[in-house]
Amino acid sequence: MTGDRLRRAGGPGAVILLVSAGLAVLEASGQAFWQGLAINLGIFTILTLALNLTSGFTGVFSLGQIGFMALGAYVSAILTLPVGLKDAYLSDLPDWLAGVHLDQMAGPVPIGFLGATVVAALLVTAIAWLVGRVLMRLSGHFVAVATLGFLVIVRVVLFNADTFTRGSRTFSNVTPNTNLWWVWIWLLVVVYVVWRVKRSPVGREMLAQREDRLAAQAIGVRVLDPRLVAFVIGAFFSSVAGSLYAHFITSFSPTVFYFDLTFRVITMLVIGGMGSVSGSILGAIGIVGLTEVLRRVEDATLLYGLSQIVLAVIFIVVITVRRDGLLGQREIPLDRLFLRGGLRRAAATVPEADQRL
Amino acid sequence: MTEYAIQQVVNALSAGSLYALMAVGLAMVFGILRLINFAHGDLMMIAAYVAVFCIGAGLSLLVSLPIIVGATVVVGLLMERVAYRPIRGAPDVAVLLSSFAVGQILQNGTLLATRLVDKPQLIAFPSPEALSGVVTLGTITIPKVNVASFVVGLLLLGLLTLFVTRTDLGLSMRATAEDVPAARLVGINVNRVVATAFAIGSALAAVAGLLYSVQAGQINPYMGFTPVLKAFIAAVIGGFGSISGAVVGGFVLGFLEVLVTALSGIGDLIPAGSVPPDVLGFLHQWLPAGLASWRDAIVFVVLIVVLLVRPQGILGRRDRTDEG
Predict the structure, then answer these.
(1) Alpha-carbon span A264 to A275, nearest angstrom
(2) Does A156 contact B294 at a Cβ distance shorter than 8 Å?
(3) Which terminus of chain A, N or C, has less C-beta within 10 A?
(4) How far apart are CA B324 and CA B316, in angstroms?
(5) Choosing among B107, B108, B291, B303, which should be mutated to test the A contact, i.e. which has the most A CBs within 10 A?
(6) Tens of pLDDT along A189-218?
(7) What are the extents of the domains in chain B?
(8) Phi and psi for A305 in degrees, rounded to 5?
(9) Model-level pTM?
């Protein structure tokens, strides 16, 4: 039995080791462009996984995710800003906040950054819980629009709360704490949590009420609670992604966190497959890669806007001809990599559920 | 004070009729297909760019208008045929998301087009002669375009009502909105009805886009996003899927927005001494001058409250609400 468990851990373990080694090489190479791309990819993968949990698993489509990301970005950036910069930069901050600076180091590790990320994420989670308790009652279209409303409200708040956010002016001078390792570790945490949720009782409730709400309710499956759990955990990780993003790009304004970003993450999710963890990862890789290529094309031809058109067309084609995306609800069974029969047999034994968007 | 109030009422009526024009288009399509067409706002944007082109070419408003409306209707029909018809019957959210994709294509397509003809993204809107200037009534001055928005809005909405209630196609449209399979059974060509709804919606959006651009004074490829959100709120407040509800919702929203704007900083407008200082202090504290910049957040809070408390809206019926 332990042998079996060890073998099951072998597949993901091997992948983790391989990617870690790759990251070490990348770090040593000093190729800033590829490092930046990898960080970007990691952050978008976290966002896609978080949205998958919130929306893919439950069928409750949230367009407000980027609002949580924005809050996470601003809160963590304010927390890590050194006191001197706070005075110069956000001079009107209330005293209790002006003295806070989570820029402590434990050796080479910016432990304050970790603290700021977690504090911001917890705060955002609390907000998500309040918002979710209200909004998760809605369904279908209406929840999408109400959460879009949340995104607009967050934007208005960020623009107007100049004391904390500098309003429409750029918030810059954020310490560039985010590196490959932070993103990689958080990504592993997210993958693990989302994976576990999918296989947990509450995760099965999410999927069940997504497939058929009435039938699920009739056999005693809860609707509201699993939705709220998904919404809140998704918000936590979106906030983490926001914090990582803020400490990566180091200067931003509220306009960054709006509809373009929302739509890009949705595209990754839908293309990968709603309800599939490995699908989200593939979707993020595909779209981040494609965006980068298209950006090159745009720069070369000066045809700005082309990349969004291509993405939108891909999106419509996927929705029209392959609504389940790449993987639907299935997973790449990495844990069977070292089992007898391997991936192929495993793929055949995973029951294919009725997959709908 | 009275003049201020009258001016604000006119503003509200003008904004309300623009919202109503947009909301009606959304509501007609939603009533039949249960599709929230977020690309509807981009039709306004298309109309605005066609208008710039026509006016730039020296055409008069009377000649331009059919071109503007016609071009927008063509885009609206194409959108329905290419993007929405193939996925009819797909889950609500899938269709909603692809309407966002359609919007992205229209916005970025326009962006590309402006680049190809070497124009900046943001262009000043050349206001046609007939819509510029102000109307003066005694001591009150009102921009002409505000009056025009209200009059044109009422006129078009009246025509739409006649169409829906007095013509065969209008009757088919209402029947299809009631029950698509049943409408098909009695021989209604549903595709034609859907195309008609899109065509009418696009035409109304074109007129709204023209008036909106004159009011805003400038246009850009992303200008349709906020109006479509507002129109959507209007349609929800009124009762989604109902045409009359959309009209009512549009005016309610117009008044709500103007109220927020008008009340912000109201304390500064009241002459000192005419009200007790307590009242003035209260006004300064709760209705500060900055309130207007919170307007969008306030209307969305109203939307969420409506969705929770009365999801069927003011005029909607319970069975129209989404319980998926």
Answers:
(1) 17
(2) yes
(3) N
(4) 18
(5) B108
(6) 999 999 999 989 999 999 888 888 889 888
(7) 2-318
(8) 110, -20
(9) 0.88
